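Before drawing any conclusions, I looked closely at one protein, both as residues and as discrete backbone shape codes, quoted below without any editing:
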Amino acid sequence: MDATLIYLDTCSIQRPLDNKLQPRIFLEAEAILTVLSLVEAGELELLSSDVLKFEIACIANINRRSEAETLLRLAANVAPVQASTKVLSEQIIATGVKPFDAVHAAVAIENHASYFCTCDDKLLKKLKLLKLNGHTQFVSPLELVMEVTA
């Protein structure tokens, strides 16, 4: 049986590095750490992308950047941004999604990720309204951990 393929956007990858004093951030960080432990155990497969690597390389704080890069090394594959990705991302941008977020979503869709995870509520709401695919589910960290541990 193949492991379930997941895509964590930049804010999800960084969530375990955020200040966990707020209950929501604490819970989301724990959810991401649980998901990453399932990746390490081979129960889930993490998909990275050129755009994810680029965004993480742009993180100003060297410690956060280094930690995020370490987490990305758990990814089995790095998806390139292809011409078809750009076309799909333009369709997503047309719905009001920001360009980098749209490319992340397009990569997840094109690579048949079962789940695309983000901590960004506004982005998540917009993505859940999309009718572009029938495979990739757009979820928060808490939704993701509930789905993959059920």
